[in-house]
Amino acid sequence: MNRILVVRNDKIGDFMLAWPSFAMLKASLPECRVAALVPKYTADLARLCPWIDDVIIDPTKTAPKSKRKALVEEIRGYGFDASINLFSTTYNALLVWKAGIPYRLAPATKLAQVFYTRRITQRRSKSAKPESEYNQDLVRSFLADRKRSVVEVQQPYLRFSQGQLESQRQKLAEQLSIRVDTPWVFVHAGSGGSANNLSLEQYAALISGLPAHCDVVLTAGPGEEENAKKLRGIAEEKGRHTVLYDKNDGLVDFTAAIACAGLFIAGSTGPLHIAGALDVPTVGFFPRRRSSTPLRWKPLNSDGRHLAFCPPEGGGSEGETDMGRIDIQGALAEINPWASPFL
């Protein structure tokens, strides 16, 4: 049996964009056993993934030396035949090298590449394709080395049963005092510090222009509750009632809640990419800067179920990241007719 370690130990959004890679790997090599190295905060999502057999928790490079050494020994104990570092840093490269994994594949980036046995040039900084495609290219290279054909897996990459969705929807309706038989639009105004985002005033203008028959649910992760409350107040001043969903029973519960949405609106954040993996229709707001473009961080939605906006061309480097240049009324003119089949 091939034992393969896949490393994607950064943020939630980055990890979700690796799901097609896990799916491709397991579908193409069904006899293999796949382990994922992830930080603690994405571990519950990793356990949801049907193509991951084992989850290894990374204490991260800031952990005490004893814990980092223990991680190397844990990895060594699995007896991996191969590792695929979807995310390459010196820390990650040293982990798989010290663990003695014989085949070590990663992007050819900087000094870290000397610790791998197999490297492919990607130049992700050019953002010529979605991050999910860069990840899958590594798996395709691995399969080519194994002389195995590639099996593609289609969306959605994350599913809940109909019974789970009905139960979750009823739970949310009672918790938030909203109608169970009405379309729900989730709006996540938090950024997680990963990218520029719309202002609360822009979000409020957007919310006030959404179809009146929908219930608007404002979501918030840890540390984002106060901003969500402020957004709710601004939206109320504009005459649009919203409800605040800032308490849940953990990341899996929050993910199941997202699966109940008819539409999910956010900046380039982890929750947006969870929604994309579920194939819940998404609207995303992105900077124009090359490393953060709508193309590079495109969610995993199937065709026709994602709409992206970014600042208009011009304005130099500052203009590329000035989200205030996005015309909300113009965006609404696109969003509402596009979203009507989903709501």
From TrEMBL:
Name of the protein in its database record: ADP-heptose:LPS heptosyltransferase
UniProt xrefs under Pfam families: Glyco_transf_9
InterPro entries given in the database record: Glyco_trans_9, LPS_LOS_Heptosyltrfase
Gene Ontology MF terms in the entry: ADP-heptose-lipopolysaccharide heptosyltransferase activity
GO CC aspect terms: cytosol
Signal peptide location: none
GO biological process, one term: lipopolysaccharide core region biosynthetic process
CDD domains documented for this protein: GT9_LPS_heptosyltransferase
Keywords, alphabetical: Glycosyltransferase, Transferase
SUPFAM superfamilies given in the database record: UDP-Glycosyltransferase/glycogen phosphorylase (SSF53756)
